[in-house]
C-alpha cells in the first residue's frame, strides 16, 4: 500500500523561491519538455515562452502579450531575436496570434497545444504576417525628364 503524500512534500524548496509560499509559479509538463518541438526550438524561444506562460492566470490563455518594450526592459534579447523566437513558437505550435498588433497596440497571443503534432501532417499553424524589411522595398529612381 502506498503511503499518502502529505501537503508539506509539495511545498517549495529554498532553491525554488525566496518566500515560503509563493502565490504564483509556472508549470511545464514533462511531456512538453521531452517533445520534439520543445527540443527543436532555440533557448531564446524557450525564454520567451516561459515569460508568456508566467502571465497565464487560468482565465487568460487566449489573451497573453509580451511586448518588445517588456523584452527590452527585462534585457532578455534584442528585437530581431525576439521576432525570430515568436516565429519559432508559432511554427512549432506553442502559441497562436489572437490579435495582430499595429502601431501602439500590442499583439495578443494564445497558448495552444499544437506542439504535440510537431513534425507530423496534423500540425496546422498559421504563420505570423511578416512585414517587409527596409532592404526589401524597391528603390525607385526618379528619371530626369528635361
Whole-angstrom Rg = 21 Å
Give the assembly state of these chains. Answer: single chain
- Mean pLDDT over the residues: 81
Strand order of the largest sheet: 1-2
Distance between the termini: 98 Å
CATH architecture of the domain at 30-117: Orthogonal Bundle
CATH domain class of the domain at 30-117: Mainly Alpha
Structure write-up:
The chain has 146 residues and is mainly alpha-helical. It has a domain at 30-117: Arc Repressor Mutant, subunit A (Orthogonal Bundle). Helices cover 27% and strands 6% of the residues. It contains five helices and two strands. Strands 1-2 form a two-stranded antiparallel sheet. Strand 1 (95-99) and strand 2 form a beta hairpin. Helix 3 (43-54) crosses helix 5. The longest helix has 13 residues, at 79-91. It is globular. The N and C termini lie far apart (98 Å). The mean pLDDT is 81.
